[in-house]
Amino acid sequence: MAQACWFLAVLLALGCTSRPGRAGPFHAQCKVQWYFAIPCEVVYESLVEQIQRWRTLASCSQGGQKCLYKLQSASTHFITAKHVTPVQGHVDNITFRLVSYHFFSSCHVSAMSISESWYAVKDHGTNYCNLYNLVEGSGLTEARGYVEVTSDFLCTQRSSANCSVY
Ligand SMILES: *[C@@H]1O[C@H](CO)[C@@H](O)[C@H](O)[C@H]1NC(C)=O
Ligand SMILES: *[C@@H]1O[C@H](CO)[C@@H](O)[C@H](O)[C@H]1NC(C)=O
Q: Is residue 165 part of a domain?
């Protein structure tokens, strides 16, 4: 009990010093695990191409958030990118970690998106959509053996997300 109180006190102190009067130091974020029965090379190329295809604002001319992605770094097993929301200009950090299994015939992807600003303790599922839209847009949701593992606990407002909007 004493330990729990101490932990809470530290959290409150952090919240108070960094964001007086705000909701605390928490950022909206999302973690998703994806499994594919195709090699990581194919997954890697699909994701990198999709990030580059949605670089400019042009791909949001019909609305939605499938634009303003920026590749930060890409090496066979690790991709980092940023996504800027077209209207408010919020920046989200995105990472994909790719690990081969079943003798390189399958690929496990751990993806994460986190809002750089504190704005979003409620993000309307934007962090989930940042990741999902790339996977869906590149056709990977149709790939052999596609499985997604996530939850509302791992992803802010995941179940109410409408990724054609956010
Ligand atoms: C986002 O990425 C930048 C580096 O590109 C880093 O400095 C920053 O701390 C990251 N923000 C969060 C919330 O992870
Ligand atoms: C998501 O939003 C679009 C555009 O507003 C709408 O057409 C669609 O029905 C919505 N989908 C869901 C599942 O709510």
A: no
With the most atoms of ligand 1 within 8 angstroms of its CB, the residue from 19, 78, 94, 116 to mutate is 116
Is residue 136 within 8 A of residue 148, CB to CB? The reply is no
Residues 29-58: tens digit of each pLDDT = 899 999 999 999 999 999 999 999 999 999
pLDDT digits (tens, 9 = 90+) for 55-83: 999 999 888 999 999 999 999 899 999 99
Ligand nearest the Cα of residue 25 is: 1
Q: Crossing angle for the helix pair 40-53 and 126-137, nearest 10 degrees?
A: 110
Counting residues of the chain whose pLDDT is more than 90, the rounded percentage is 61
Question: Which residue owns the Cα nearest ligand 2 atom 7?
Answer: 164
Strands 91-101 and 78-84: antiparallel
Confidence (pLDDT) at 20: 34
Identify whether 138 is part of a domain: yes
Q: Domain range spanning residue 156?
A: 29-56+63-160
> Has residue 4 been placed in a domain?
no
Q: Is the Cβ atom of 160 under 6 angstroms away from ligand 2?
A: no
Nearest ligand 2 atom, CA 63: 4
Ligand nearest to the CA of 65: 2
Domain presence at residue 43? yes
